[in-house]
Inverse folding.
């Protein structure tokens, strides 16, 4: 399974559809709110949401929606990234509710080689998140520094830093006969 891409593997105009989707539970939303100290009653208080908001129910906190979509994109976009350079824009265009399932896809807008180091480049991408009905809920653009193949080869290839299992008294090794 591929995890991220090298600079050479990105094509301007390509779209990567992230899989699988993620159903947002009330627990997920509340835990994220509590971990990030966002105690707004729109997210945590059912009575408040039902009685005083236009939605009539709790809305999932936007930063969690963004975080889910960003995480979904990692295997396709930034799994080999050297650095996330910039979140250029982030728009929440419709609410997400408990029980909604989020899906995402990312399109490559542009790419260019680094001016300072010849073993890397920058990709400019736009991620669109939508729910189970196809309703777009979040759109963001970012710039990611990714390695070229030469960078990866110099650091161990596809899975840099991966150790080799060492035979010992519990495992004699792959060539041992029983």
């Amino acid at each position: 399974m591929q995890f991220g891409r090298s600079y050479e593997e990105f094509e301007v105009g390509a779209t990567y559809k992230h899989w699988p989707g993620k159903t947002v539970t009330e627990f997920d939303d509340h835990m994220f709110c509590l971990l990030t100290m966002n105690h707004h009653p729109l997210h945590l208080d059912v009575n408040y949401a039902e009685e005083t908001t236009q939605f009539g129910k709790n809305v999932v906190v936007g930063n969690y929606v963004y975080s889910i979509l960003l995480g979904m994109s990692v295997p396709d976009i930034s799994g080999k990234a050297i650095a996330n350079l910039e979140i250029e824009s982030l728009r929440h265009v419709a609410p997400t509710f408990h029980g909604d399932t989020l899906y995402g896809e990312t399109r490559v807008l542009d790419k260019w080689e680094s001016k300072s180091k010849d073993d890397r480049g920058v990709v400019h991408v736009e991620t669109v998140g939508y729910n189970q009905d196809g309703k777009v809920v979040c759109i963001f653009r970012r710039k990611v520094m990714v390695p070229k193949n030469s960078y990866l080869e110099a650091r161990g290839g596809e899975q840099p830093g991966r150790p080799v299992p060492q035979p010992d008294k519990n495992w004699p090794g792959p060539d041992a006969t029983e």
Notes: Residues 62-78 form the longest helix (17 residues).
